[in-house]
Amino acid sequence: VSLSTAENKHREDIASLQEQQTKAEKLLQKSSIDSGSLEKEVSTLTADNSKLQELNKNQEKEIEELKVTLQSKEESLLS
């Protein structure tokens, strides 16, 4: 193998490694963006879930109040 051939092979290897590094950096950047948007989505879903839990709690309270009112009316009708 001549020195020139070895140098060319070495240059090709370096170019290939640089290309792989560029691809890896782009993937890392994309995954970082994806991660950020996922974190935002999780935060939004968590907030929505909290609101729904509060709404559910309020509705359960209203149902209990309606049950008490209904029971009271039933008792007054029976007496």
Provide keyphrases for this structure.
mainly alpha, 1 helix, 79 residues
The coarse silhouette is rod-shaped
**In which range does the helix fraction lie?**
over 70%
In percent terms, what proportion of residues is strand?
Answer: under 5%
Low-confidence stretches are: none
N-C termini distance: 111 Å
Order of helices and strands: H
Number of strand segments: 0
Q: Please describe the biggest sheet, giving its number of strands, its sense, and whether it closes into a barrel.
A: none
Number of helices: 1
- The structure class reads mainly alpha
Rg over CA atoms, rounded to whole Å, is 34 Å
Mean pLDDT: 93
Structure explained in plain terms:
The chain has 79 residues and is mostly helical. The protein contains 1 helix and no strands. It has one helix at 3-78. The protein starts with a helix and ends with a helix. 0% of the residues are buried. The mean pLDDT is 93. Residues 43-56 have a biased composition (Polar residues).
